[in-house]
What does this fold into?
Amino acid sequence: MNYYSLNKQAPNTNFKDAVIKGLAPDKGLYFPSEIKPLPATFFEQIGQLSPVEIAFEAIKQFVLPDIPEPTLKAIVEDTLNFDFPVVPLNEQISTLELFHGPTMAFKDVGARFMARCLGYFNENNNEDVTVLVATSGDTGGAVANGFLGVKGVNVVILYPSGKVSAIQEKQLTTLGKNITALEVDGVFDDCQDMVKKAFLDTSITDHMQLTSANSINVARWLPQMFYFMFAYKQLQRKYEDIVFSIPSGNFGNICAGMMAQQLGLPIKHFIAANNANNVVTEYLQTKHYIPKSSIQTISNAMDVGNPSNFIRIQEIYQHNFELLQNNLSSFSFSDNETKAAMTEIYEQYHYIADPHGAIGYLGCKAYAEKHPDAHCVFLETAHPTKFLDVVEETIHTAMELPDQIKAVMDKNKVSKKISNYEDLKTFLLAMT
Ligand SMILES: *Cc1c(COP(=O)(O)O)cnc(C)c1O
It folds into this structure.
């Protein structure tokens, strides 16, 4: 498959090069030059297919021939070593639990897939690739875990000191091996700025191959199509009109759902559920896209003022506002509404949602007001214990830590403190 840059100022390239570069040389996001729908029989018979078969069919056109079929099958199988259950709350609303992976966040799927692709590309390469990533919480843990021990790949994670949860910090500072955690004296935006600066700094990039591992990378973004198909498989015999409500930050997850729809998955409509960071909600109301600085909320993985994947969504819908509006609704909710939703879900359904999932639930409820016949699935993007303080305080109930979390809590944190860009540069150059 060929990929082009959405800035249209860089040459087309293949999957391998798009994965290794992350971003095109003109700073545009890569996008597949063609999307071939799967045959209708695939969706009619999806009930008989295993998750690995479904995922392989969905992704192969985007990857072959850069990774041979048997290797790609093995990568998919290795990526998907946990479950994706749909849990019904009532006749109108279900949740798709994406938190059964090693770091209990949906980002495990993309991080594991990307790590294995990069590992394959680097098998016979003596030059290491360095994955450089800034995290406000969940990305760091998923990337660290996904890339742990992958030959030829070093991972450097920048996180804001004191601004990620205790569990999240342990997940990214206790692995060792090819993973280094840099603890930045600053906020998330400082980490992000340093990473962006490093990618543009030829005194670094002349000496080492840097790549990103956030959803701008096609190998992290595209596998997120899989679980929309797994949810459809579980619900297709029960409901006609299936709608997804996706708690959105950088809009990579929802954009992957839209790719699944392009492949022919019968999804009736998408709901972008947002916290106070409401650029897209406002865009759909006013037709004006106005990026803002991010606002801090209790659903902090969605505190994004200028979602990087929105440009891919525009491309999918051919920059046609009406077409987009017919497929996408968006609602924005405050922290108080989020907490009230967590309480409601707990009291009415005895289900514990994390703050991000709770916003997805509110998206379903808002949509249901005008569409009572649809069945809405909200994505539960992280396990509630990852946001332990706010969840326990809101529902007034103590939660037991799952085994994956307990296992890291006992390990020792190892991080290197840095306070400015020069520190980062010195660290990176010392690796070469
Ligand atoms: C990353 C993340 C999101 C937002 O996903 P995007 O693909 O950036 O829209 C939502 N919830 C949680 C828990 C996350 O970690």
In short: The mean pLDDT is 95.
